[in-house]
Write a structure and sequence with these properties.
The complex is a heterodimer of chains A (313) and B (301).
Chain A: E1 9-20, E2 23-34, E3 38-42, H1 49-56, E4 64-69, H2 78-84, E5 85-88, H3 100-109, H4 115-128, H5 144-155, E6 162-166, H6 174-189, E7 193-198, H7 201-207, E8 210-215, E9 218-223, H8 225-232, E10 236-241, H9 246-250, E11 260-263, E12 268-272, H10 275-284, E13 291-296, H11 299-307
Parallel strand pairs in A: 3-7, 3-8, 5-6, 6-7
Antiparallel strand pairs in A: 1-2, 1-4, 8-9, 10-12, 10-13, 11-12
Chain B: H1 13-16, H2 35-59, H3 62-91, H4 101-121, H5 124-132, H6 137-140, H7 146-174, H8 186-207, H9 214-229, H10 241-249, H11 251-264, H12 270-299
The chains are: A alpha/beta (313), B mainly alpha (301).
């Protein structure tokens, strides 16, 4: 049974693995999440993020390793662990035969919550999710962003202290994403521990206090977004486009500019402390890119550095 | 179970502060119970919670359900029991054990109605749960266990069968086709019959990864032959011996024979009655356990 764990991590995973036959979806990852932290798993599709989330959520059995949620093993104490969680799965699984508000109430019943609590709580959550005027609408009439917000509202019906979000904004348009981020940020401020997976670096930078970069079932790096960028990339990046044919032929002529060079199919990245200075150096060598852009390093660059691949392919 | 103060189960409470919105004057304070309470209730009543969900979904098309529950029996009883019966009763009174044709087929229609309903409720909605709209994955992430999702689904369908059969029986009785005072007991027997066919089907449906028309085949090549060759419209003994096995393995035949004993006192050895009950119960039990295993395996991947 749960006991007082003040100061202890709410989630601790050690050497966690999940194999499907020969395939190692999750291959020995370890991390700890203290209460109130917003923790992210950043990686491309198929990196093992969702599998990890499903194990943390107590719905998928691990092959090996140790996992404890609030000190409880989710395989031994499934209902107890899941009672603490709010879960936003990668794919919405709302009941489209029920009205919007009834989706919240029905879900709350799974926690044994009485209707006297659920009815006002559902209204409160609909307001939080900006869906009040859709309360009695059919779920299939909602837009993708609205369904996502309803799924998040549903995950909050039991007032969880831990919220698992699997790719919360994938497939949404920019405006819908910003609304969602705002809602998640408020939850974070109210002290909810957020665990989220994403393959969007801007999402990770916006929401995560700390994150792990995951690739092929393994953790490549860990730290705050700022620290990861500092450790694995330069301050600025110069992006040059010479046209897809010329990128590779020009690359040798750029030697020595900046600290590091990355040739991608559509552009060349020069990692430098001072991007403008690097650009002047390029021009002084008589090279004329079609477009050039100086920007700050991002998690995308960290990922590229660590894995040699882009996040979104 | 030891008693806990709610706050002890909620680590980070002190640092995080209360999650309930601070009460504005006059507004009631919403208090959620502790996760440990949720877990304990889910362990105890989880199957009912899921059944409640399924019933609420069914409620959204309740008029269709009611209309078909009333319309189907009325249609069948008029066509077969009144229209056809006039002819049959003139020709072959004794072939049906001395009762009118209407009384003879009423228990069979009752049992086949539950099989048809079970065949619908335990196929497409299962695909919906696992694949199309992934309805099962919501409760799966909640404190409910996979076995409770199965039990809840079955409970809700059983209640639907009970309601449909009760309506059906009332109409049968109104047609005067259930002369025995024990006729009402054909209702639970018909529900058991529906489950004995439906639960093995549920276990199968849960294992179907992709719908390539399997369910349509089940309807056409299993449900329909059972409907026609289970002693439904004529006694099984009138079939040639090489076809009678269809009746013997058919839950519908066992259910119908039981129903006949209850609605008009059709006489059969007590041993055979027990065989009917046992056969139906064993099929339902095996289907139920297989379904639980299949659900657990598939949802827990």
């Amino acid at each position: 049974m749960p006991h007082n764990l003040a100061g202890q991590p709410v989630i601790s995973a050690h050497d966690l693995s999940k194999h499907y036959g020969e395939f190692r979806a999750v291959d020995g990852i370890s991390f700890e999440v203290p209460a109130g932290e917003s923790f992210g798993l950043l990686g491309p599709n198929g990196a093992g993020k969702s599998t990890t989330m499903r194990m943390v959520g107590g719905v998928s059995q691990r092959t090996s390793g140790h996992l404890a949620i609030l000190g409880l093993d989710p395989e031994q104490h499934g209902p107890e662990v899941r009672a603490h969680l709010g879960v936003v799965p990668q794919q919405d699984n709302l009941d489209e035969e029920l009205r919007v508000r009834d989706n919240l109430i029905v879900y709350g019943r799974y926690f044994g919550l009485p209707l006297s609590y659920l009815k006002p709580k559902a209204d409160e959550l609909l307001e939080f999710a900006q869906l009040t005027d859709k309360a009695s609408a059919r779920v299939d009439s909602l837009s993708g962003g609205m369904k996502r917000r309803l799924t998040i509202a549903r995950s909050l019906i039991n007032e969880p202290k831990i919220l698992l979000l699997d790719e919360p904004t994938t497939g949404l348009d920019p405006q819908a994403r910003h609304i969602l981020w705002d809602r998640l940020f408020r939850l974070k401020e109210s002290g909810v521990t957020l665990i989220l997976t994403t393959h969007y670096m801007d999402e990770a930078e916006q929401l995560c206090d700390r994150l792990v970069v995951v690739d092929k079932g393994r953790i490549m790096a860990e730290g705050s977004p700022a620290r990861l960028i500092k450790e694995h990339s330069t301050r600025e990046v110069l992006e040059l486009r010479f046209g897809s044919e010329r990128n590779t032929t020009v690359a040798p002529e750029l030697g020595g500019i900046g600290e590091r060079l990355e040739v991608l199919p559509d552009r060349i990245l020069i990692y430098a402390h001072d991007g403008e200075a690097a650009l002047e150096e390029v021009a002084s060598r008589g090279l004329r890119p079609v477009t050039s852009l100086v920007r700050r390093s991002s998690l995308e660059d960290v990922f590229l550095r660590l894995t040699g691949r882009s996040l979104v392919e | 179970m030891s008693t806990h103060r709610p706050s002890e189960d909620r680590p980070g409470e002190e640092s995080a502060g209360p999650t309930t919105a601070s009460p504005s004057p006059g507004a009631p304070v919403l208090r959620v119970h502790a996760p440990a309470v949720s877990a304990a209730r889910a362990r105890k009543f989880g199957s009912w919670y899921y059944a409640e969900h399924v019933l609420r979904s069914m409620n959204s098309y309740r008029w269709t359900l009611l209309a078909s529950s009333v319309g189907t029996p009325v249609m069948y009883l008029f066509a077969m029991g009144v229209g056809l019966a006039t002819l049959v009763d003139q020709q072959a009174g004794e072939a049906f054990g001395g009762v009118g044709y209407l009384a003879f087929i009423a228990p069979a229609l009752l049992a086949s109605a539950t099989i048809m309903t079970a065949a619908t409720e335990f196929t497409y909605p299962v695909m919906d749960g696992f694949k199309w709209r992934r309805v099962y994955y919501g409760p799966h992430a909640s404190p409910l266990g996979t076995h409770q999702i199965v039990n809840g689904h079955i409970t809700a369908v059983a209640l639907r069968l009970l309601l449909t059969t009760a309506i059906y029986f009332a109409i049968v009785a109104a047609f005067g086709a259930s002369p025995s005072p024990w006729g009402w007991a054909a209702i639970p027997v018909a529900v058991l019959c529906g489950l004995s066919f439906g639960l093995p089907l549920l276990a199968y449906a849960a294992s179907v990864e992709e719908d390539k028309g399997q369910f349509a085949l089940v309807m056409r090549f299993i449900v329909m032959p059972l409907f026609l060759f289970s002693g439904t419209f004529f006694p099984l003994e009138t079939l040639p011996v090489f076809l009678r096995w269809i009746g013997w393995i058919s839950p519908l035949w066992h259910g119908t024979e039981l129903g006949r004993t209850l609605t008009y006192g059709y006489e059969q050895p007590l041993g055979l009655v027990l065989v009917h009950v046992l056969y139906l119960s064993v099929l339902a039990f095996i289907g139920w356990r297989l379904a639980q295993r299949t659900y657990a395996r598939r949802l827990g991947k």
